[in-house]
Write a structure and sequence with these properties.
272 residues, five-stranded antiparallel beta sheet, 8 helices, 28% helix, binds biotin
């Protein structure tokens, strides 16, 4: 692999916007690109109360306190990966299946970028390539707004890759070419500006097929870790609400709205 950090393209608001469809551009009130910030999610959560528009996007070259799901840290070294959040106003209250829809939107953006094979989704919303984590999603609600945060690995510096013990992968390892970050960032933003609009009107159903066609856990023996208990069984896919379906050892079908999944009889896949 010949791609080095020196070939890295800085993020640029004008270039990102040039990728957007006119209708998506209209839905975007603001787009910020920061050299360094604590967390793009934290920043937009702070702006959400006063925000009157529909969408506000924020990218950063570095996050000093990047956050992952379940209170984890999201390692965010400078000028390498994509750290991106979108603040979006929702009029409806129930957005519980949104993370499933957003995962499907990322798949669509990656396919448009040219990553067509071996991308899978691990419920609820980890994006994997050949079993290694390529992207993660952190959704946070604030009043009638939601902040959708996406971390997508493009180049993992050796030190970061070591800290993640080989569980994560960067896009350069997949494409073996310099990453056109502004194009990729534009594709992701465009997909979200389209997809969140569709989700607000139609819910999860337009995204279900994409999610189901990329299900990494289907028919696998898994453990679902909930705060109450660990459940074991065979994964049967997801239902119309995006809940995980588990056929347990008593041959009963159980639905899970939340929980963390590990695959049995292999090393548990780890979040970063
Ligand atoms: C996960 O744990 O898988 C979710 C990771 C989400 C990371 C992104 S990076 C941009 C945004 N800002 C944050 O602090 N977190 C999200």
């Amino acid at each position: 692999m010949n791609v080095s950090l020196s070939q890295f393209q800085p993020l640029n608001a004008h270039q990102i916007k040039s990728v957007l469809d006119p209708v998506c551009l209209q839905r975007l009130e603001k787009l910020d690109v920061f050299d360094s910030i604590d967390s793009t999610n934290t920043y937009l959560l702070q702006q959400s109360r006063a925000f009157q528009g529909l969408g506000w996007a924020c990218f950063a070259e570095e996050q000093t306190s990047g956050r992952g799901r379940r209170g984890r840290t999201w390692l965010s070294p400078k000028g390498t990966n994509i750290y991106f959040s979108l603040l979006w106003q929702f009029s409806q209250q129930d957005v519980s299946s949104l993370s499933i829809a957003v995962a499907a939107m990322i798949i669509t953006a990656l396919k448009k970028y040219g990553v067509t094979q071996d991308i899978k989704l691990k419920w609820p919303n980890d994006v994997l390539f050949s079993g290694r984590k390529l992207a993660g999603i952190l959704l946070e609600r604030s009043g009638s707004s939601v902040v959708v945060g996406i971390g997508l690995n493009t180049i993992l510096p050796a030190e970061t890759a070591d800290m993640l013990e080989g569980h994560s992968i960067g896009l350069v390892e997949i494409t073996d070419a310099p990453v056109d970050r502004n194009y990729l960032a534009g594709l992701l933003l465009n997909e979200l500006l389209n997809g969140l609009f569709v989700y607000a009107q139609q819910g999860l159903s337009p995204f279900l097929n994409t999610w189901k066609n990329h299900d990494a856990l289907l028919n696998q023996s898994i453990m679902v870790h909930t705060p109450e208990k660990i459940f074991t069984g065979v994964m049967q896919g997801i239902n119309e609400e995006g809940e995980l379906l588990l056929l347990n050892e008593s041959h009963q079908l159980q639905c899970f709205r939340y929980g963390e999944v590990t695959v049995r009889m292999s090393s548990p896949s780890r979040d970063r």
